[in-house]
Amino acid sequence: RYTSGQDMVSILQLVQNLMHGEEEEETSQAYRLQNVGEQGHMALLGHSLAAYISVLDRERLRKLTTRILSDTTLWLCRLFRYENGSAYYHEDDREGLLKICRLVIHTRYEDYTVEGFNVLYTKQPVIYISSAARTGLGQVLCNQLGLPLSCMCRVPCNTMFGSQHQMDVALLDRLIKDDVESGKLPLLLVANAGTPGAGHTDKLGRLKELCEQYNMWLHVEGVNLATLALGYVSSSVLASTKCDSMTLTLGSWLGLPAVPAVTLYRHEDPSLSLAAGLTSSQPVEKLRALPLWLSLQYLGHDGIVERIKHASQLSQRLLENLKNLDFIKTSVEDELSSPVVVFKFFREYSNRDQTSHAAQASAIQHSIISNERHIYDTFNQWLGEQLAQLVPASGVDVVELEDEGTCVRFSPLMTSAVLGTEIQDVDQLVDCLKMKIPVLTSTLQLREEFEQEVRRTVGLLYIEDLTWPGLGVVRYNYHNDGKNDDKQEKELEKINTELLKKLNELESDLTFSLGPEFGGQKNCVYIGMVTEDLDVSELVETIAATGREIEENSRLLENMTEVVRKGIQEAQLQLQKANEERLLEEGVLRQIPVVGSVLNWFSPFQASPKGRTFNLTAGSLESTESTYVSKAQGTCTTPPPTPTSSLAKQRLPGQKIFKRSLRSSDAFSETSSVSHCDDLEKMDQRPPTLSPGQEQGPLETERTEEQKEVAQATKTDTEDIPSDKSPHDCTKVEEQESQR
Question: Engineering a disulfide at 407: which of 275, 344, 369, 589 sits with its beta carbon 3.0 to 4.6 angstroms away?
Fold first, then answer.
């Protein structure tokens, strides 16, 4: 098909179709593309210009690439306060650290270029990274460098003093001493100026002193490095300017698409930098900086600072609003200037430790705390997903932290430039958070009550699922009649599926579902988030009553086939017996064809037709003689109606199901019911009267004793006419009695 090639229009059309994909994805793609802006087009233009520039003659290309590389490096070093630095431009943000590791290996092992791995074998290098670093960073470095995983040492964070996301400097010192004593060579330390999770900064000043003591290389990375371009910089971040190298991800900070990351470093030997791959003699490799060169010129110094400052203001705006919200716990390093805001929903229990003896209930208390953490992780996962869905321009996401658990993260330095986040988006995020907090607190309060109600209700089984963000999980267990496991499982699935369908048909504000697509319990009903006015007892009672109704209907359908089969067999036996009796009554002569006709003509035989009717409700055979006598089909007794919840019957007009009424409405309904009962008692005590227009039918000649007593009682009661009756009504009553 493509042997002859295609024209430009067809190729561009193919690219357009591949970019947009399905129709339902067009909206999200258009939303991403509309925020590119002119500065984004400048970055994209740089890739096209790099292809055109690469075809220039060698001398002109060398001069142009040298100018672009030197200008971009000088601007970045001045902008981020990194004096006398060199720059390496790379697509993968981990590639710069990888090249730095090669540079340090070449520097510390003089014979590495000649002997290679043998040098490393005699004295094993050690690279130290924080336990709060990016996931899988150490494994990637070892794989790319060809080192065993034993060369990677993870340094724990603080546990007693300081931030729990900062590297423990004292413990790092002991680890380095142990490695030196065991004959290893401490090579490099990777520190964070803004951890990937919580955005905290390590104590870079003390870490730099430690690296100088052991002749180690200090590399720093993190989102907080962007604040170096601002006028005010915190002392912890400002210490990063003294490090040996740092990696900057300008694409996400400034909203520039397809621009490379930059690693700034200081080293005096250019030959080792060339051997490590930090510099290249090929002019085309230097053109990687062209998109960034164009974008920096377009934005200018003021434009770059304004974007970073705007992101910092967004985080401060959110942090100030979160301080005024109950049940919200923040985890920030510096409340005055924190580019990353991490928060979570959490409710303190003041009397948790005062409810039981510590010695006897320590294991139970530990289990309760562990379950509570799982529940809070689940609720915060739901909260983060809801906020990201309701306010997509905010760029919030969910992050898993080692100590805090699941939290919601707002990092505008990484998202605001691309998504176009504004102050009103932060205010909308706070408003949505205020709406979700009452739902979270109500659901958390009612979970225990729901569990207790389900456990005390016959036929329902409470399923403990700590990963479900909602009221809880319940399963209806039907009565097992000795069925095998496969049949029992199918019947259980059928009943609970029908129960879920019935519950969703109710007019309520609750959400009933089968649970998560992966990892959920089978044959269960999952109930979502609820509000504080939920009537848990009515909800559980309705679930149980609906399940019993479905089970009864299911059993009726199961038994119907067996009942009908037995009924047909019984009917056949009775009809066969009736035929034998008819032969005995008619005689043998009447069965002969010709003789029987003549005999029937002279002496007809009167025989009443006998049949059988099958009552499906009672499951029994009945005679049809009454049907032929009365000339009408007999009516069967109707089954009793399905019992409904007594609480549902007392619902006020306009009140939805499973909702508790307010106190005023409850008082009004109780007063109304009491007055209504009093009226009923008065009406019962009132003597019955005959209506003015009522006519009496003809009296029968013979009355039973009961009828006479009723008539006598009626006559006696009519003598006592209430005061509210008119004289005309009294006269009519007397005339009717005289006629009687």
Answer: 344
